[in-house]
């Protein structure tokens, strides 16, 4: 019969004679030491951007703003891949000022899956907005609709420009970037801000 009057008594009955080397705490400690490196790599598997944004204050702001509910891709990783389809979830006014080269506008307030009907569900897609909040929400919708390889651009088009990546308007390359508003525009360190 198990000893109900003491916790160690219950452990003694479950785990053996109660010698020091057989205590559950030591086993659990060893287990967690062994499993932590594996858990750390799951973050990369789930698609969390592995490279932070360049500005530590901006990184802190993004940490508190985003829910990290979808896979994320760092600007450096997205810029180096040719086969990506970029979807812009900003307003049409922002999109007209400038966009990532080749991006398609899908909007946010009036987003509809009809706007992505020509994109294959297994196509690698990156959604972006100014900083990543609106694009995170659109990425959630795309994943719910069956898109298999869709990520949120961590830091948005602001970080894209901050890292020296090109933007274009309908005439070609431009330095202009819609800064959303003055409060959010402070995170845009390069380019010519347009409000």
3D architecture notes:
The structure is a single chain. The chain is an alpha/beta fold and 195 residues long. It folds into two domains: 7-46, no CATH class; 56-194, Oxidized Rhodanese, domain 1 (3-Layer(aba) Sandwich), CATH 3.40.250.10. It has eight helices and nine strands. Strands 1-5-4-2-3 form a five-stranded parallel β-sheet. The protein has a two-stranded antiparallel sheet with strand order 6-7. Strands 8-9 form a two-stranded parallel ribbon. The radius of gyration is 24 Å and the shape is globular. The relative contact order is 0.14. InterPro entries: GlpE_sulfurtransferase (IPR050229), Rhodanese-like_dom (IPR001763), Rhodanese-like_dom_sf (IPR036873). Pfam families: Rhodanese. It comes from Robiginitalea biformata (strain ATCC BAA-864 / DSM 15991 / KCTC 12146 / HTCC2501). This is Rhodanese-like domain protein.
Sequence of secondary-structure elements: HHHEHEHEEHEHEEEHE
CATH topology of the largest domain: Oxidized Rhodanese, domain 1
Q: Between the first and last Cα atoms, what is the distance in angstroms?
A: 76 Å
Domains, number: 2
Q: Report the CATH architecture of the largest domain.
A: 3-Layer(aba) Sandwich
Considering the protein shown, what is the CATH homologous superfamily of the largest domain?
A: Rhodanese-like domain
The major beta sheet can be summarized as: 5 strands, parallel
């Amino acid at each position: 019969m198990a000893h109900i009057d003491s916790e160690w008594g219950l452990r003694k009955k479950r785990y053996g004679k109660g010698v020091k080397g057989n205590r559950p705490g030591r086993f659990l400690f060893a287990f967690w030491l062994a499993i932590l490196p594996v858990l750390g790599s799951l973050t990369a598997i789930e698609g969390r951007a592995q490279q932070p944004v360049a500005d530590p204050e901006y990184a802190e702001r993004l940490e508190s703003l985003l829910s990290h509910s979808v896979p994320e891709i760092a600007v450096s990783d997205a810029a180096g891949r040719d086969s990506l389809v970029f979807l812009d979830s900003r307003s049409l006014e922002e999109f007209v000022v400038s966009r990532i080269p080749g991006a398609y506008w899908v909007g946010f307030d009036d987003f509809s899956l009809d706007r992505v009907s020509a994109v294959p569900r297994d196509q690698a897609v990156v959604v972006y907005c100014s900083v990543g909040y609106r694009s995170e929400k659109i990425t959630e919708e795309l994943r719910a609709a069956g898109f298999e390889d869709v990520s949120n651009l961590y830091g948005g088009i602001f970080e894209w420009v901050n890292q020296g990546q090109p933007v274009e308007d309908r005439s070609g390359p431009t330095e202009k970037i819609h800064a959303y508003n003055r409060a959010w525009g402070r995170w845009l360190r390069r380019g010519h801000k347009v409000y």
